[in-house]
Amino acid sequence: MKIAEPTVGRLVQYHRLLERLYMEGQKVVSSQEIGESLAFKASQVRKDLSYFGEIGKRGVGYHVEKLYKHINEILSSPRKWKLGLIGVGHLGSALLGYGALRNDKVEISALFDNDKSKVGKVFFGVECHHIDDAAKIICRDRIEVVILAVPSSAAQSCVDSIVSSGCVKGILNFSPISIVTPADVLVTSVDISVELEKLLFYLKEEEKKK
Amino acid sequence: MKIAEPTVGRLVQYHRLLERLYMEGQKVVSSQEIGESLAFKASQVRKDLSYFGEIGKRGVGYHVEKLYKHINEILSSPRKWKLGLIGVGHLGSALLGYGALRNDKVEISALFDNDKSKVGKVFFGVECHHIDDAAKIICRDRIEVVILAVPSSAAQSCVDSIVSSGCVKGILNFSPISIVTPADVLVTSVDISVELEKLLFYLKEEEKKK
DNA sequence: GTGTGTGAAGTGGTTCACAGCG
DNA sequence: CGCTGTGAACCACTTCACACAC
């Protein structure tokens, strides 16, 4: 069955919450309680969880450990994904140092940058290569996922060269531009300036109301 | 009229594209062409643009300069927003150095961190204060928008203290946790690890298909 | 009684299809 | 004739409401 994107996003959040509840020793949790913690409707939580079979107990709630492990299974990876990070500037190094990538599902195997002063250096234990060698190294090291943190002017040409390697299956794009890829390469984009602009737009709208 | 969130996001992207086309000297553009550049359907582009009156010419397309200035107007701010950034770690400093905040709609006025070794120092021309002084300084400097780039364990208490100042109208949250705020404080969240997990989930699904 | 699971209804956003204007 | 503007159809996701299991 196809699981909708918003549902997957919420599953990740349930997973996080349950991990915490589990650590705290809580045994049982209701859809109501999950909803309040994460600002979702209880009915939404139940619907999301029901996609994967009857996991809760009527009149009781969900068993924290069981549900945690269940969602863990749903989100689990067949193996550790090898990641490449292109662009070791401010944002790229932030991502490197950031918790999001210190995760047992992924492993950063290589860095790439066009700045020759960075090439050959090691950042957070990972070596930086020149961007021109990206396709070659991605193939050699069996890298399947690429995080793109380069300026918009460089984004598309980076994409073209790594896609040409034929090894890349997914791209997490942080460049403020929409990139084009063959249909078999999945792309998720995080556009920070769009998010900021959206917030500012609605702030302005709020102000106009008054 | 209420403009839907996805529409606002696309407007920001139209704006960027038109700026480029305008610089390049292109005079006219069709919904078709905009759609191809940004990977949206032409009908979607036309619907989005039609919310703001008849701005295109039938049989011709949209006048680049006119449309650019029109969208500029829609997205314009009543004034420069003053921003505070909480959390001058990897991600926070990346955001500081990053282009998204070098924008004539916003101005970073203050930084906050709980690390005493950072307090009193200046980063990218902006002084860092202790987080405990945040509410006070936010009021004093009339800061209305706060960017939150702290670990999830600290997020909610930061939110509570800055919201208590009564001056904050919007929060751009980068912490991997959902925060609760009074209804009159707008929140936009960018959850990098959720985005990564979503990508990995769909990569796994793709693999299962084969 | 309590809280889940779920069909059905509702809501919001996208896409179609074509009338209408340049 | 070409491309926009737009009501209507469509689709996807959310919420409701209640039967059902504990």
Structure report:
The structure is a homodimer of 210-residue chains. Chain A is α/β, with parallel strands linked by helices and 210 residues long. Chain A has 2 domains: 5-75, Orthogonal Bundle (Arc Repressor Mutant, subunit A); 81-194, 3-Layer(aba) Sandwich (Rossmann fold), CATH 3.40.50.720. In chain A, 45% of the residues lie in helices and 18% in strands. The first copy, chain A, has 8 helices and 9 strands. Chain A has helices spanning 5-23, 31-38, 42-50, 64-75, 90-97, 134-140, 152-164, 192-209, and strands spanning 28-29, 62-63, 81-86, 106-113, 122-123, 126-130, 145-148, 170-173, 186-189. In chain A, the strands form 2 sheets. Chain A has a 7-stranded mixed β-sheet, with helices on both faces. Chain A has a two-stranded antiparallel ribbon with strand order 1-2. In chain A, helix 1 packs across helix 4 (64-75). The longest helix of chain A has 19 residues, at 5-23. Chain A is globular. Chain A starts with a helix and ends with a helix. The model of chain A has no long low-confidence stretch (mean pLDDT 95). The interface between A and B is large, with 61 and 59 residues. Chain A binds a DNA duplex (22 and 22 nucleotides) through helix 3.
Number of helices of chain A: 8
Number of strands of chain A: 9
Beta-strand content of chain A: 15-25%
What is the CATH class designation of the largest domain in chain A? Answer: Alpha Beta
> Which chain pair has the greatest contact?
A-B, 61 and 59 residues
Q: What's the assembly state of these chains?
A: homodimer
